[in-house]
Specification:
InterPro entries: Helix_hairpin_bin_sf (IPR029012), Put_N_fixation (IPR007774). It holds the Pfam family Rop-like. This protein is mainly alpha-helical. It has a single domain, classed as Orthogonal Bundle (Helix Hairpins). It has helices at 3-31, 39-62. Helix 1 packs antiparallel against helix 2.
Length: 65
């Protein structure tokens, strides 16, 4: 597997994880005030995944993919 293929696979995986994190954050907001204690953890997880996805997309673009 080439570096570009590996980066594409990583972007695909991170995209799925980030989408799930976004849905988790959305679901949490829909249930408020129940579960308000989870807001920092869920938001931090979502933020981290989108940061990693952005980095992976930039690496893929730089690799010519």
């Amino acid at each position: 597997m080439s570096d570009v293929d590996a980066l594409k696979a990583e972007v695909k995986k991170l995209n799925a994880q980030a989408t799930q994190a976004k849905m988790d954050l959305h679901d949490l907001s829909e249930e408020l005030p129940i579960g308000w204690e989870k807001i920092p953890d869920v938001a931090a997880s979502c933020h981290d995944l989108y940061a990693r996805l952005t980095q992976a997309r930039a690496a893929l673009k730089a690799a010519g993919g």
